[in-house]
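Folds abound. Consider this:
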Amino acid sequence: MGTINVNSGEVECAIQNLINKGNDLTAPMKSIGEEMVNRTQQRFRDKEVPDGTPWKDNSPVTKARKGHGRVLEGESKELAKQFSYSAASDSVEWGSLMVYAAMQNYGGTKAEFPHLWGDIPGREFIGMNDDDGDEVLGILADHLSV
């Protein structure tokens, strides 16, 4: 499984300040995880990377093999459904454990992966944008006000 580390100075500072005050952040980390899974699923529905750029369309070869042009859906449509998160007192991780999720997120070439029928462009769906960072800060602020 691939890993994407999201580093936002503002978010990291807010989290560290709460930890330094002795706050248990498990509850807000769960809220952040739930929100990021929801946002990831929405990106998948919108077929956009976190910055709002549309995903690349399937190649003509892929369209011919699949019989349709729907990007990343696959026959089972499981990748779009299989997002989860894991929260701890000082961090949260979210993503997919589907074996091909990293390939879909990062892409790959036939030269690297000979079993592919062609190159696969990355269609990023895991990550954070500025709006996501603002939402995380809002969740942390809500936790402080309780």
Notes: Strands lie at 83-87, 92-96, 107-108, 120-121. Residues 26-46 form the longest helix (21 residues).
